[in-house]
Amino acid sequence: MGFRLYFLLIFILVWAPVGAQAQELCPKRVGYIEKNALTRLVLPIVQDVYSRLGCETVFVHLPGRRGISAFNEERIDAELMRFRLVEDQYLAPFVRGKVPLIQLKSYFWKNPAMVDDHTKPFGYVKGLIWQENYAKGKPFNAFYNTQSMFKAYNTGQIAGFLASGPAITNAHQQQMIKPLPVAVELVKEAPLYHYASSAYRGFMDRFDRYVEANLPFTHISIDQHKVENIN
Length: 231
What we know:
The protein has helices at 2-24, 37-52, 64-72, 129-135, 146-154, 165-173, 201-214, 218-221; strands at residues 29-33, 58-62, 78-82, 94-96, 102-110, 122-125, 140-143, 160-164, 182-197. The chain is of the alpha/beta class. The strands form 2 sheets. Strands 1, 2, 3, 4, 5, 8 and 9 form a 7-stranded mixed beta sheet that branches. The chain has a two-stranded parallel sheet with strand order 6-7. The longest helix is centred in the N-terminal third of the chain and has 23 residues, at 2-24.
């Protein structure tokens, strides 16, 4: 009995602080863009990586712009994924992952049945900076998330929209979008990164090493969409 108690005490003294230290080094709250088609693919993988790294992190859904302000006001410690465009918006010190999560292609999509209808606007999601930049000064309506934008497309309220290739592939597989839109322009091709407060630089090094070694996002980067001229 005394022998077992001795080893139990050794375990508690040696390993318990290590577990506590690992948890301390993890971001406590990670923000992600709500009701976003690409988020649905990436979020479960990031949650699994955090779990494997010993984290008990809360993931918080926010509209795009609120995620940035929440990070700046230190209400969240990290953001799930962003293009480097976001860095001009961050006011708080940050660290970007050295390894991108995804190499992403994003397109302007049109309904093939509404090519000749020039009366309908197109859609973009507020808070996604690349979409806001492209839509500025053009006949685009803003939506709070991709879910509401896809509903508007399905009911013929908009003739097309901006979205990434993997998001459309997944939405089509889940029968969330009909008819299948056609990519008419490659708007952006760039990597998406995980971002965290600079206080979590050590964790980000661990996160990068795991992603680099295990490549958990590779299948999402596969994009076989082709741009078609239907105008």
